[in-house]
Task: structure prediction
Amino acid sequence: MSTVVETDVLIVGSGPAGASAALALSTYGVPNIVVTRYASLADTPRAHITNQRTMEVLRDLGVEQEVVAQATPQHLMGNTTFCTSLAGEELGRVRSWGNDPLAQAEHELASPTRMCDMPQHLMEPVLVNAAVARGTRLRFETEYLSHAQDADGVTATVRDRLRGDTYEIRAKYLIGADGGRSRVATDAGLPMGGQMGVAGSINIVFEADLAKYTAHRPATLYWVLAPGATVGGIGAGLVRCVRPWTEWLIVWGYDVTAGAPDLTTAYAESVVRGLVGDDDIPVTIKSSSAWTVNEMYAESYANGRVFCAGDAVHRHPPSNGLGSNTSIQDAYNLAWKLGLVLDGTAHPRLLDSYTAERAPIGRQVVTRANRSIRETAPVFEALDGLSPQTPEQLWANIAARKDTTEAAGKQRAELREAIAFKAYEFNAHGVDLNQRYTSGAIVPDGTPDPGFTRDPELHHQPSSRPGARLPHAWITSGSRTLSTLDTVGRGRFTLLTGIGGEAWVRAAEAQEVEIATVVIGPGQEYEDPYGDWARLSEISDAGALLVRPDGFVAFRHASAAPDAGERLADALRTILGHA
Ligand code: FDA
Result:
């Protein structure tokens, strides 16, 4: 071991968490190195649902349009279908992912972005290419082995898998974004709750032109109740669209106590045939892999100078499509904090807010995703489809719902209700957007928690209370229409005020830390022609919101303040950990 490479931040892993950490850090001008074990980025589709909050993050990081150009658009995602096979009987549908007309309006009101379906093997190159173009140094086939930290930094030992030798990388901070079997999290001793290997599952990626069974009911997910579909896995057989309507990924369960089946091409083909239900369609198997459903989350995301993000600290099934989203949002939360600590603007205490803010989200996501699996069972219970039986019995049970009897009517009603209840998996807009932080990097304004007037998992409720994400409203600047969210971000704080808020603007300009100022009102740089901002801001024109680089409100004052300078300086001292 002769060489020691130096950097500010070493990132282990190039998945959604590591790649977006690198992208954000490089965007903020923080030197960073990514090491990743394999010779390429993800070679299978994996995570795909990309929610509005993630799209907002990508918008701020300048890659939103690239993702939109490659992703399957929202309007092709929405007819989640329950069926006996793609060619078989349809049991019902859920208008999903913001495609229900009412949900669509809520999505439009909530964010300037749209949800989309961006498979991980397409997402990772977008993130990594942009990160490298902005300065990230990336090393493929480089495996993290261990680390040791001291008062000034972290020394990681890595192995060059091509040459076989090891070397050291000295960094001021280490980010473990090394996935569900994170060695960094283990080495850092992060306490984990929950359980790995709750159920067994197989992913089969294949090509087949299935347009005749899907184009008339476009969806990202087709759920199949076939014999064996409720064994292990994620609650049913799943045919997931990777590229409409020719590339697919099947998720099929196995009994985890019996171990994964032998993943031969013949086995994969037999599963595909069973779920597609049409033997005449040519099928090309591209890959098969086994994985397990996990229900684990870390209580702490950091130990000293080591921080973990993504699956390293929250491991859960793909239900609700939260894996990659949560990973990207972890990284976005952490990156600006590291940037400000590294350039001396903030005290390292600011970094404590990472666990305080993200660990509760990780726990919520793990719990929700696993609960969604269990909530699929009532769909099949309504069809007597869960008890052990022959295929013939299953088909007879399913056919029974067409009878004219009272029992059949009851069965139809139960089925409709159970399918509609799956909105908690396929339309959980609140889970996507209602994140509220409590930490040292948020200054309470003394107002009581407003709670939620509707189901907080299903519905987004905007708030400008410190700890909430800045509400989105369309405003204008000259001939340009933009979101309030477009005025914040880019690695710096932003102060929003209105007519009468001059003292806040002067106070912001007087601070040592860079604060962009946004004045919204008639005759100002930004105007509020629809009155949306006045309705959503929850402050008077002369009040102020201080928004963090990640778009979360850190400080709020409802009205003008003669001592604006002092108040803002106090707030910043707290937020930046100097208090
Ligand atoms: P991720 O696992 O993506 O990345 C970890 C990175 O760390 C990789 O680049 C890896 O090479 C690297 N690494 C690991 N150990 C290392 C070491 N010692 N040294 C250097 N590098 C190291 N989700 C979903 O919503 N729908 C789905 O269908 C699927 N399917 C799926 C299939 C398979 C096979 C996997 C592995 C995962 C899924 N997921 C999924 C989960 C989803 O992919 C996951 O939530 C996100 O990728 C998490 O992103 P991370 O960046 O945290 O980890």
